[in-house]
C-alpha cells in the first residue's frame, strides 16, 4: 500500500522504532471483519426469562461455528468473522440476530457501559453500529436518541434500528447545536463517534487513503471540537461522554481530549475496565504537543493514558481511538427546568398526540406523502377515533397474549420523564420512548412504529414484530433450520403454503426463535406482509 508521504513522515517521527511494524500491517492483505450479536434479540424460552429477559437464551452454536473465528476481546458480544464465510447473506442477519461491524469500532459502545433504564445519546450515529449496540444494552428500557446530520445516512440508520428490534429509539436528523438546545444536561451517556480523517481505515476504505491530506486532518480536528462543544452540554451531572475516532492523528485524538480537560474542568477521564485495558493500548500523552500546560502536564498525562488506542500491528482490528470522560456530579445550570415538560395525564384510556397540520395539508394541497418533520405542539393531545380504537382493540384481542398486550395497556400520555407516550402521525401509530415536543425538529423515526391504520383495520409493522416473541402473540409460524427454504420464501415476499390449519389471522413468523415479521394466515396459507422495500431477490 502506497501511504501518503506526509502521513509516513509524521508517523515515523511519532513512533520511532515502532514504525516499521506499524507500516508492515498495511502490507498484509485483507482486514479484520467482525459481527456483533444482539443479546436482546436472542429467542426467549417460555418460562425461562429473568428480569433482563435473557436467562436460558444463548447464541446459537451453529451460527458461531459457521461464521465466527474467536471473540473480539474488547467486546462482550463481538466475534471475528471466519474467512470465506458470508454471514451477511444468512437468514440470521436478515432477522437482526447480529450486526456486521468492524471489530475495533465495537470498543466505543463497550466503553459506554450502558445499563437498562439510562438516557443515551448517539450524536453521530449512522450507519447504526454503535446505536444498535447501545440500544441492545438498554434492553428496551430507558431512552436512546440516535442522531445523524446527513439526510441520506439517517435513513440507513433508521432501517438498522428497525432490523435490530430497538423499541425505544428516537431517530433525529439534526445538527449538534440543535440537539444541545433540545437536551441540556439530559443524558447519562453521550457517544460521539466523530467524523475524522479516517487514517485507521486505510486498509479497508480506499477513499480514506486517496482523500487524505494534512489540511483534511486539521479541518477534522476543528470540526470535532465544534461537535464536542455541543456534546458536553448534553451530559447530565455525573454522566459520561464517550469520544471515538478511526484515525491515528494526535490532533484528532489525544490533543482533543487534552483540550476538553482544559476547557471543561468539570470533566475527567475515567479508568478503562481491566478486561478491555489488557486487550488494547493506552493513549500517548507525549503526543499532545503544546496543548499541555506545565502546571497541569502530569495530571493531563495520567488522563491521556486512560485513553484507548487500537493498532493494526498490535491488535486484530483497524486503527481506532476512544476515551471516556465523566462529568462531576454537580448541576451546571441549577435553574434549568426539567426536560421535557410534564403534560396532563389523560383519563380516557389510550390517548395519543398528533402532528400539527400545515395550511397546505388542511386544504389538501400538500405534496408531502411521508411527513418527516413532525410539527407538534407541547401538550397537544388527540384521542384515537372510534374506528381506530375499534380496529386496534380488535388486533390486540385477536393477535396478542396478555403478556403482549402489556406493551400497550400502560402506554398513554403520562409524565414524560419515565413513561413512554403513544403518538399518531397521519395513519401511523408510534410509541415514543418519552414525551418529545418535536416542533421544528427533523424526526426520522419517532420511537417504535406499532403499525398503520387502514380502512376498518389495523396492520402491525415489521418494527413491532421485531420486538415481540412467540410468548407475546397468539399465532406463531415457527420455522426451523430444516425449513430454511420457507424462511427465504418469506423474505422474498412469497405466500407460504402448507402451514398449520389452526393458524388464523395475524401470525408472527419466526426462524429458530428469531422473529422475522408478520403474515396473515387463513386455510393453511400465509399471506406475506414483509415490507416490499426490504424483500430479497432470487
Question: How are the elements arranged and paired?
Answer:
Elements lengths: L4 H11 L3 H7 L8 E4 L23 H7 E4 L6 E4 L9 H4 L3 E3 L6 H6 L6 E4 L6 H10 L4 E5 L3 H13 L5 E4 L3 H7 L4 E7 L12 H5 L3 H21 E11 L8 H10 L3 E3 L4 H4 L3 E2 L14 H9 L2 E3 L9 E8 L23 E4 L4 H4 L19 E2 L2 H14 L2 H8 L11 E5 L2 E5 L10 E4 L1 E7 L2 E4 L1 H6 L8 E4 L4 H8 L4 E2 L7 E7 L2 E9 L2 E4 L10
Parallel strand pairs: 5-6, 5-8, 6-7, 8-9, 14-16, 21-23
Antiparallel strand pairs: 1-3, 1-4, 2-3, 7-18, 9-13, 10-13, 11-12, 12-13, 14-15, 16-17, 17-19, 19-20, 22-25, 23-24, 24-25
Helix pairs in contact: 8-10
Task: Name a few traits of the molecule.
538 residues, alpha+beta, Rossmann fold, Archaeosine Trna-guanine Transglycosylase, Chain: A, domain 4, 3 domains, 10-stranded mixed β-sheet, 6-stranded mixed β-sheet, 18 helices, 25 strands, 29% helix, globular
Structure commentary:
- The protein is α+β, with helices and mostly antiparallel strands and 538 residues long.
- It has three domains: 5-327, Rossmann fold (3-Layer(aba) Sandwich), CATH 3.40.50.150; 351-464, no CATH class; 475-534, Archaeosine Trna-guanine Transglycosylase, Chain: A, domain 4, CATH 2.30.130.
- Helix content is 29%, strand content 22%.
- The chain is built from 18 helices and 25 strands.
- Strands 5, 6, 7, 8, 9, 10, 11, 12, 13 and 18 form a ten-stranded mixed sheet that branches. It has a six-stranded mixed sheet with strand order 15-14-16-17-19-20. It has a five-stranded mixed sheet with strand order 21-23-24-25-22.
- A hairpin with a 2-residue loop joins strand 16 (421-425) and strand 17 (428-432).
- Helix 8 runs parallel beside helix 10.
- The radius of gyration is 24 Å and the shape is globular.
- The chain starts with a helix and ends in a 10-residue tail after the last strand.
- Mean pLDDT is 86; it is low at 46-56, 334-381 and 412-418.
Amino acid at each position: 500500500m502506497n501511504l501518503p508521504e506526509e502521513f509516513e513522515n509524521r508517523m515515523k517521527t511519532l513512533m520511532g522504532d515502532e514504525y516499521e511494524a506499524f507500516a508492515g500491517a498495511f502490507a498484509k492483505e485483507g482486514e479484520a471483519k467482525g459481527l456483533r450479536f444482539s443479546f436482546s434479540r436472542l429467542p426467549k424460552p417460555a418460562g425461562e426469562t429473568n428480569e433482563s429477559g435473557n436467562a436460558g437464551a444463548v447464541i446459537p452454536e451453529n451460527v458461531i461455528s459457521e461464521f465466527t473465528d474467536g471473540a473480539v476481546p474488547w467486546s462482550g458480544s463481538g466475534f471475528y468473522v471466519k474467512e470465506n464465510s458470508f454471514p451477511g447473506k444468512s437468514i440470521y442477519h436478515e432477522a437482526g440476530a447480529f450486526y456486521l461491524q468492524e471489530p475495533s469500532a465495537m470498543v466505543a459502545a463497550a466503553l459506554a457501559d450502558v445499563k437498562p433504564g439510562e438516557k443515551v445519546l448517539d450524536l453521530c450515529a449512522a450507519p447504526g453500529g454503535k446505536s444498535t449496540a447501545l440500544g441492545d444494552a438498554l434492553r428496551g428500557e430507558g431512552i436512546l436518541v440516535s442522531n445523524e446530520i446527513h439526510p441520506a445516512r439517517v435513513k440507513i440508520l433508521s432501517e438498522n434500528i428497525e432490523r435490530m428490534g430497538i423499541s425505544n429509539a428516537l431517530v433525529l436528523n439534526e445538527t449538534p447545536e440543535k440537539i444541545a438546545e433540545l437536551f441540556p444536561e439530559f443524558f447519562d451517556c453521550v457517544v460521539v463517534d466523530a467524523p475524522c480523517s479516517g487514517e485507521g481505515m486505510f486498509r479497508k476504505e480506499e477513499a480514506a487513503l486517496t482523500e487524505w491530506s494534512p489540511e483534511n486532518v486539521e479541518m477534522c480536528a476543528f470540526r470535532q471540537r465544534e461537535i464536542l462543544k455541543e456534546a458536553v452540554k448534553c451530559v447530565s451531572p455525573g454522566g459520561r461522554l464517550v469520544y471515538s475516532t478511526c484515525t491515528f492523528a494526535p490532533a484528532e485524538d489525544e490533543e482533543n481530549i487534552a483540550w476538553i480537560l482544559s476547557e471543561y474542568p468539570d470533566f475527567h477521564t475515567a479508568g478503562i475496565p481491566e478486561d478491555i485495558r489488557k486487550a488494547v493500548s493506552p493513549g500517548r500523552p507525549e503526543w499532545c504537543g503544546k496543548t499541555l500546560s506545565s502546571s497541569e502536564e502530569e495530571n493531563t498525562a495520567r488522563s491521556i493514558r486512560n485513553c484507548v488506542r487500537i493498532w493494526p500491528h498490535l491488535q486484530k482490528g483497524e486503527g481506532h481511538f476512544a476515551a471516556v470522560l465523566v462529568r462531576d456530579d454537580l448541576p451546571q445550570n441549577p435553574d434549568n427546568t426539567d426536560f421535557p415538560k410534564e403534560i396532563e395525564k389523560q383519563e380516557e384510556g389510550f390517548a395519543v398526540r398528533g402532528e400539527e397540520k400545515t395550511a397546505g395539508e388542511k386544504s389538501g394541497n400538500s405534496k408531502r406523502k411521508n411527513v418527516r418533520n413532525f410539527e407538534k405542539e407541547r401538550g397537544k393531545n388527540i384521542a384515537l377515533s372510534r374506528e381506530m380504537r375499534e380496529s386496534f382493540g380488535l388486533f390486540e384481542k385477536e393477535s396478542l397474549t396478555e403478556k403482549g398486550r402489556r406493551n400497550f395497556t400502560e402506554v398513554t400520555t403520562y409524565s414524560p420523564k419515565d413513561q413512554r407516550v403513544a403518538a399518531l402521525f397521519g395513519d401511523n401509530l408510534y410509541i415514543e420512548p418519552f414525551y418529545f415536543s418535536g416542533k421544528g425538529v427533523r424526526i426520522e423515526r419517532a420511537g417504535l412504529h406499532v403499525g398503520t391504520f387502514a380502512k376498518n383495520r389495523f396492520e402491525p409493522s415489521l418494527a413491532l414484530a421485531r420486538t415481540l416473541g412467540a410468548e407475546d402473540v397468539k399465532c406463531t409460524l415457527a420455522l426451523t433450520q430444516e425449513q430454511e427454504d420457507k424462511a427465504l420464501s418469506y423474505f422474498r415476499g412469497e405466500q407460504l403454503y402448507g402451514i398449520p390449519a389452526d393458524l388464523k389471522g395475524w401470525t408472527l413468523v419466526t426462524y429458530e426463535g428469531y422473529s422475522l415479521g408478520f403474515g396473515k394466515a387463513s386455510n393453511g396459507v400465509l399471506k406475506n406482509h414483509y415490507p416490499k422495500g426490504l424483500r430479497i431477490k432470487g
